[in-house]
Every structure is written in structure tokens, then in C-alpha cells.
Amino acid sequence: METASGRASWDKIGWDDGLVLCEILPSFVGQIKKTGAKIAPTALLPRVQPHSMLDLPAFKELLSSPKQIVITTHHKPDADALGSSLAWAGYLKKKGHRVHVITPTDYPRFLAWMHGNEEVIVFNEGNEQQSAQLVREADVICCLDFSSLKRINELGGIVREAKARKVLIDHHLEPEHFAEFELWDIKAAATAQLVYELIGQLGDHREIDVPIGECIYAGIMTDTGSFRHPSTTQKVHLISAELIGLGVQTNKVHRLVYDNNTEAKLRFLGFVLMEKLVVLPEFRTAYFAIRSEELIRYDSQTGDTEGLVNYALSIENVVMAVVIIDRTDGAAGPSPADRFGGPAAEPPLRSNRTGGPAANSGPVGVPAEGPSLSAVRSVKLSFRSSGDFSVNDFARQHFDGGGHRNAAGGRSELTLDETVQRFLSLLPEYREQLLRTQ
Ligand code: 5GP
Ligand code: MN
Fold it and tell me: Which domains does the chain have, with CATH numbers?
């Protein structure tokens, strides 16, 4: 379980297993004492917590005077990535800090209503120099909703080199441990939940206003699949109830995120459900493989493929669903002009910067940043599973990816057809596991 960095690796264990490990550890130690086996205590009692708490007094001290702060989040931010970043930014600004939110890439239009959206700097839209300078000059860099610097593309190296004190707030498996302050909890339903709790721990619960609360609610709502995934604890509902008490209109947030589709997105959905869905009952698996020319044909925009994978997972008896999308050629991402309100952008509910059609929805609803159009030119894979089948392991081992046990992403440098072949060739090895998944 120990990695080279000396940290416990959660590669092979889900979060429930982590708790089980904590519980069995005393009896395990007792047995070893009985048998007289010689095992170094550090090997037995590693940091077996699937979370790390930041040093609150030191963190308070860090934020006790005005700082230049950069907040960044992962490639193709989803509602939790952007919502937690903008909520955290809103709070820090209220405390007198100078804050910039930098995203590595664009994000779906249906997030544009979030408070602070208009100030977001999108790194790969001609803002590389400005972003690099802000990162270099920052006193503090907060990395939200991702835990490996490769998830922020070229920004990763710049953040790594920066002199700033680094803060990680995240709930994904296997953090890289590059930050001095780590608030990491894989049991948290969303990074937005961690932000909510952290603001409370800093004694500033009263600073959470409606705009901040809406961002937090959006993150929690989407990352729990609208409160249906096992991560939806009592605490999640209590936090949501508190947000409602503050004045957050949850139905407004839900409509902004989920009822903001373009006609093109729905027609694309119809096409892929009719023409592209492949179901493999013998492996309890279903997948879509989508060509770049198909994305172009349906004018697919960033975010339009989010939620697609959930339709495949919603099929009776299917426990693993995959969307494989060719992003390698031709499928240029939307231009900045499109993103800031291009021709098809007139939304049913107007938002402050980009307008906002397109939505993340699906019957099973694991939220997704979704493989998307611009920035990374490769075949992207998006995985979902139910029960104890770990798509985190699958994506990590075979497709240079990762995520959570039941929702993960990855990439491939092969062509689309080769990637599909590779994926199919792996299934027999997993057949037993897939068949016995509950
Ligand atoms: P999606 O399928 O929506 O792109 O991603 C599902 C989950 O896996 C999200 O939590 C996302 O942050 C994570 N994820 C997606 N791609 C990658 C990847 O390449 N590496 C890692 N570590 N996580 C990923
Ligand atoms: Mn998240």
C-alpha cells in the first residue's frame, strides 16, 4: 500500500474498504503479536485514512492577511470543479484577498450562470502568458477538485514550479501530494462539500451567501447525481438543507444545469442512442464509440456529451458503461466567440457570460466533465460503473486515467477503432469480476 512517496496508496481499495481496514487493524496487530511475526509498525500503521485534514491553525494564519490567490481546477471543469472554485473565490474575496480563478480549458455553457463566471481566466484561450504570470506571482495557489497536476495540462508545470504556498481541496482517489495544505477526503460527495465545511471550520459560516451557496449546491447536486449516488450521506442532505435555509433556490439551480439543452444536443443524443449504442450482455457492459466527424455533424459543443455515459449504465443488468470519443482531428472546440455567446447560444435561461444551453442530464446522472472538444487531441474515455466494480482501477491501469470507483476518465493515443479494439480485448480478463458485481 505504500507508494514511493511513503503515502498510503488507495489504488486497490475503495473508500469503504478504507474504513474496514481501519477497523480490522487492531485485531490484525494483535494476531501478529501472537504469531511473533516481525513487521515494522510503520508498515502496519500507515496513514490509512482515506482523507487528510489541513493544519487549520496554520491555514488560518496563512489567510490572516490579504494575499494574492490563484484558484485552479481540472481540465474541462464540471459543476463541482467550477462551483467549488467560484464558491471558494467568492469567500476569499469577501475576506479581502485578491483572487483569480484560472481554468485550464473552457467549460460547458450551462455553468455560465455561476457567480464569478465572468472573471474566470481560461488558460488555453490566449491567456497563457497572463495566467502564468498570475501563478508565478501568487502567494497562495488553491487546487480544487483534482489531485494530480497532469489534470490541469500545461498549467501543471507552472503551478509545480511556482513559489506560492499550495493548497489542495479534493475528493478524488490517489492524490499526488504536491500541496503543503491538503484537505482531501474521498468520502466527501463533492469538493463543494469540502469548501462548505472548510469555510465553517474557519469560523466564517455566515460569509456563505446565496451566490456562494448556489455554486456549492450545484457542485453537490451534480456530483451526487442529484442526490442518488451512495456518496449522498445524511450530512449532504443537512448541508443542502442549510443552503436552502440561506435562500438558495434549489429548483432554479437544477433548471440552470439540467434544463438548458440545445436542440442540437438532443438530436445528437437521439443519434447516438439509435446508432452508436453497443450492449455486451456477456460482459454486463455497454458503450458508445463516437467519431470526430459525428461530433462535427451535430455541432457538438463542450459539455454536450456529458451525461451520455449514464444512459448506457441505466440499461438493465449493465454494470460498466463507457463512452469513447475521438477528439483527434477536425472536431475543433468552440471558439472563444462561441463560448462567450455565439450564434446558437441564446439560452432559455440567460446567464451572465456565455448564455447557457447544453446540459448534463441522464437517467443515472453521475456528473461529468465529459470528454470534450478542445485542448486535448486524443481519444477520450469516460467510464461509469455500479457496485464494487472499480472503473478507477480500470482507467488507471489501461487508459492513463483515474477518478472515483464508479466514475472515471482516461485517454488513448491509438485511433478510435484501435482504442475500441483494445477496450474489447480487455473485457474477458474482467468478465468474472463484472459478472459478480452487485
Ligand atoms: P468524466 O468521465 O466525466 O470525464 O470523469 C469522471 C470522473 O473521473 C471525474 O471525477 C473526473 O474528474 C475524473 N477523471 C476524468 N478523467 C480523468 C483522468 O484522466 N485522470 C484522473 N485521475 N481522473 C479523471
Ligand atoms: Mn468533484
Answer: 52-257 (3.90.1640.10), 261-436 (3.10.310.30)
152 Cα: distance to centroid of ligand 1 (angstroms): 12
Q: Which amino acid is at 361?
A: S
Q: Round to whole Å and give the CA distance between 212 and 42.
A: 42
CB 390 within 8 A of CB 15: no
Task: Find the 300 Cα to ligand 1 centroid distance in Å.
Answer: 20
Atom 2 (ligand 1) nearest CA: 382
Which atom in ligand 1 lies closest to the alpha carbon of residue 81? 12
Q: What is the pLDDT of residue 234?
A: 98
Identify which of 24-28, 46-50, 335-339, 380-384 has the greatest average pLDDT.
Answer: 380-384
- pLDDT at position 174: 87
Strand 140-144 relative to strand 320-326: parallel, antiparallel, unpaired? unpaired
Per-residue pLDDT at 34 exceeds 60: no
Would you call 200 exposed, middle or buried from its count of C-beta atoms within 10 A (0-12, 13-18, 19+)? Answer: middle
What is the CB neighbour count within 10 angstroms for residue 413? Answer: 11
Place of cell 479494439: 421
Given this model, what pLDDT does residue 347 score?
29
CA-nearest of 235, 1, 242, 210 to 90 is 210
Can you list the positions of beta strands (E) in 104-174? 121-122, 140-144, 165-170
- Of all protein residues, the one whose alpha carbon is nearest to atom 19 of ligand 1 is 401
310 neighbors 287 (Cβ within 8 angstroms): no
User: Ligand 1 — pocket residues by CB below 6 A?
Assistant: 74, 148, 151, 172, 368-371, 382, 401-404, 407-410
**pTM, 2 dp:** 0.81
